[in-house]
Structures are given as structure tokens and as C-alpha cells.
Design a protein that fits this description.
single chain; about 160 residues; alpha/beta; 6-stranded mixed β-sheet; about 40% helix; globular
């Protein structure tokens, strides 16, 4: 009887993963119209983009949107398994795409103002900003190649 009991955590993890991938496969991207606000001249040069995701919060998001363009933000929460997987993906992509895109992570539990401002209702929500304007929004987990493709398509 000990054998099946030891397998319960593994079975639970497998079900969570299966559910996460099933949900992300049905998530649909949301497009936004592109426009250029007057803050375009404040953007940093690509060489100064960090090689790891920035910690974004309610108090610094506006300045980060002015400072970095394009900026790709992962709106996540700690209790969301797909979000944890996405955090690893974001770390890898930030290193590989340094100089092309700045990356940020925003914990929605700690930042309800930004969550509401950008209409984040589910996590992970991934938003690509260009010159402070949303140009692409996707809800759900996306693996590394999918995420890189989505970013490069919209740059």
C-alpha cells in the first residue's frame, strides 16, 4: 500500500502540468493598436538593456515604460505553476535577447494598481509595450520558442 501513496504527489504534479498546458493551448492572443506617444525620445539605447528581467511594480512601471522600449512584462503570481515556468523562460530569453528587448516581471499580488490598469484577469499575462503603448498581449503559458516568436513578430 505504500507504493501508491508515494505516487500521489507525482500524480498531482502531473495533473497540474497537464491542466496548465491545456489552458495555455486555448488562450488567445489579444492585439492592440500601435501608436507613438511623446516619450519615444526618452528610451534607452538597446545596448543598455539589462540581461535579466527587471522587477516592475506599481511605483516604477510608468518610468520603466518611458525608459525602455520595447519592454516585455510578465504579469505573474507566485501560486501559479505556469507563471513559475514562465519566470524561467523569461530569464533565459532576457539573456539571449539583450540589446533588443527589455524584460520585466510584475507580481500581481503586490501590485493591484498595475493589474487593474492593464486589465490583467488571469496569469500569466504577457504584454509587449513599444514606446509605452501595448502592441501585443497574450494570456497563458508559452514555451521559450513560442515566446521568442511572438516577440520577434511584433518588433
Amino acid at each position: 500500500m505504500e507504493g501508491p501513496r508515494n505516487m500521489l504527489p507525482l500524480l498531482a504534479l502531473s495533473l497540474v502540468l497537464l491542466l496548465a498546458f491545456a489552458i495555455s493551448a486555448t488562450a488567445a492572443p489579444v492585439q492592440a493598436a500601435e501608436s507613438t506617444p511623446s516619450n519615444a525620445s526618452l528610451n534607452r539605447s538597446p545596448a543598455s538593456f539589462p540581461d535579466s528581467p527587471l522587477t516592475i511594480n506599481d511605483s516604477n512601471i510608468d518610468s520603466m515604460l518611458k525608459l525602455y522600449s520595447p519592454l516585455f512584462i510578465d504579469f505573474w503570481e507566485p501560486r501559479c505553476y505556469p507563471c513559475v515556468l514562465m519566470n524561467v523562460t523569461m530569464d533565459e530569453i532576457a539573456r539571449d535577447l539583450k540589446g533588443k528587448v527589455a524584460f520585466g516581471k510584475l507580481n500581481i499580488y503586490d501590485n493591484p494598481v498595475s493589474m487593474k490598469k492593464f486589465s490583467v484577469t488571469r496569469t500569466p499575462t504577457l504584454i509587449l509595450f513599444k514606446n509605452g503603448t501595448i502592441i501585443y498581449k497574450f494570456i497563458g503559458y508559452a514555451d521559450r520558442s513560442m515566446t521568442e516568436d511572438r516577440i520577434s513578430t511584433h518588433l
